[in-house]
Write a structure and sequence with these properties.
The protein is an alpha/beta fold. Helix content is 43%, strand content 15%. A ten-stranded mixed sheet has the order 8-17-16-15-14-13-12-9-10-11, sandwiched between helices. Helix 10 crosses helix 19, helix 16 crosses helix 18 and helix 19 packs across helix 20. The two termini are 21 Å apart.
């Protein structure tokens, strides 16, 4: 599913208008689509349309007019909109009741508003749509609060949002606390990032995309910004020929594990096996070999030094082993101490000429040393969670001067922009994990995995994603294809685990064991 930003949508509308599909025609089509969405919920009560000052409010007035023409009790609340403008006047002439609620609304107007909302079967939110600028003005927040109270009141009013719930940012999904949750959002031509990124995704409810006369323009794969789909992912997977052998399906070399974190290496190895790698080799300190062998029996092992984690002296052995590998994964469970830092510095001084995934502690070590971060090989895949991304963003200077320290919450509020900026700055494919995982390429393409489940909110699931990604690289997928496919597969496996185990008590091992079901889904 293609996505467009608010600015791109405005450009598309201008182009459509220039080609003969006028703004007035688009508004008529949009309003009719909103009326279609609202109509099934009308059961003797009113349809109250909250209309703002711009085109979003115009769409709402058309919807009110169309509902009135069908015989509904349609009422329009005008916020910062004159009752004598063309759309409002036409609606009133057709029998739509109008109520003006300016910033200095009188007590009588407020009383009438509350009464209308109490009588509403459906509330149509046509206040701002993609034009919202956060934070919302207090007067608008108050209006939305009244609508939210009606939604939760005795009549359980349904809410239909026009283009986007008011208070949700179209490009980031960031939401004002007063944003009005919708049961259905009707958007036009293309969905927006705010529809699929949290928290906007949850606030949007069921999403309806109406073309409003705009022709589709090619497949999702051609578009720089889109939601990852099963069909697209299936096309990105490396082939599995019937006459293949373990060499055909690639060798993954995983540099992971330390005395405190042997499980990370085991999970990454198990995931790489379940993701179809022909051979998985784990390079780890000797102190964790017994634990790894017990939990990853399908893997082979390269014994490194006798310390608690990797050291600079291990880089030569890893580089030698990488010569016979098809993909390299570095980072899970290494720790972010001085010895691991020295190892990564030595390894990236002459990076192996192999596709590479850098995860977990490798990312923390990169963030701590901007000079080392500059050595990331072009085309590598970085897989940060929001906390790791915050540290990388600081090292890359993505927050801007004077921004101060930024944390995981700041990343979550601007996931798409941060991921794209990090990919452009590093030359790597960036997989920003979390609810609404974003996969970003250095060339400016992005895929959003529109899935979220608490089943993945547990230690070790990131190691699983890294192992899947490395296996797809080893099987012959390019960095972009491997990252998009792995992120979607990982999220889908998490949803399967939620269905079997629930949202509590899921383990990373459960996600590994759910992978075969995802492959069957894609291969079937």
């Amino acid at each position: 599913m293609r996505l467009v930003t608010a600015a791109q949508m405005r450009a598309l509308e201008r182009a459509a208008d220039a080609a003969g599909l006028s703004y007035a025609q688009m508004m008529e089509l949009a309003g009719a689509a909103v009326a279609d969405a609202a109509w099934p919920w009308l059961a003797g009560g009113a349809a109250v349309v909250l209309c703002g000052p711009g085109n979003n409010g115009g769409d709402g007035l058309v919807a009110a007019l169309r509902l009135r023409e069908r015989g509904a009790d349609a009422r329009a609340v005008l916020w910062r909109r004159a009752p004598d403008d063309e759309r409002a006047a036409a609606a009133e002439a057709a029998g739509v009741l109008l109520l003006v609620v300016p910033p200095e609304a009188s007590g009588a107007a407020q009383d009438a508003l509350l009464e209308w909302l109490r009588e509403a079967d459906v509330i149509v939110d046509a206040l701002l749509g993609t034009g919202a600028r956060l934070p919302l003005a207090p007067e608008l927040a108050g209006l939305l609060g009244h609508a939210a109270a009606a939604r939760g009141g005795p009549r359980r009013s349904r809410v239909v949002a026009v283009d986007l719930p008011t208070g949700v940012d179209a490009d980031s999904g960031r939401a004002d606390p007063a944003a009005l949750p919708a049961d259905v959002t009707v958007t036009f031509a293309f969905a927006k990032p705010g529809h699929v990124l949290p928290p906007g995704a949850a606030l949007s409810g069921r999403l309806v995309v109406d073309p409003i006369g705009m022709a589709a323009d090619g497949s999702d794969r051609a578009h720089p910004l889109a939601v990852a789909t099963a069909a697209e992912v299936a096309q990105r997977l490396p082939a599995r020929p019937a006459d293949g052998h373990k060499g055909t399906f690639g060798t993954v070399l995983i540099v992971a594990g330390s005395l405190p974190y042997s499980g990370a290496a085991a999970l990454a190895a198990a995931a790489a096996v379940r993701a179809g790698a022909g051979l998985v080799t784990v390079a780890a300190p000797r102190c964790v070999h017994a634990a790894l062998a017990a939990h990853a029996p399908e893997a082979t092992f390269l014994a490194l030094g006798d310390g608690d984690t990797v050291t600079a002296g291990d880089a030569r052995a890893v580089r030698r082993a990488a010569q016979t590998a098809d993909a390299l994964l570095v980072g899970p469970g290494l720790t972010a101490g001085a010895e691991a830092a020295a190892f990564l510095q030595a390894l990236l001084a002459e990076p192996p000429a192999r596709p590479m995934v850098l995860d977990a502690d490798a990312l923390n070590l990169l963030a701590a040393d901007p000079a080392l971060l500059a050595r990331v090989p072009p085309g590598a895949i970085l897989t940060p969670h929001p906390g790791e991304m915050a540290r990388l963003a600081a090292a890359l200077g993505l927050w801007g001067s004077g921004a101060g320290d930024q944390d995981a919450a700041a990343v979550g509020a601007d996931r798409l922009r941060i991921a794209l900026a990090a990919a452009a700055r590093t030359g790597a494919v960036v997989v920003l994990k979390g609810a609404g995982t974003v996969v970003a390429s250095p060339e400016g393409a992005a895929r959003i995995v529109a899935a979220a489940t608490p089943a993945l909110a547990t230690a070790g699931t990131g190691d699983v994603l890294a192992g899947v990604t490395a296996a797809l690289l080893a099987g012959g997928a390019g960095a972009w294809d491997a990252a998009v496919a792995a992120a979607w597969v990982h999220a889908t496996a998490g949803q399967i685990v939620e269905g079997h185990v629930g949202t509590r008590g899921a383990r990373a091992r459960d996600v590994v064991e759910a992978l075969p079901a995802v492959w069957r889904m894609l291969d079937g």
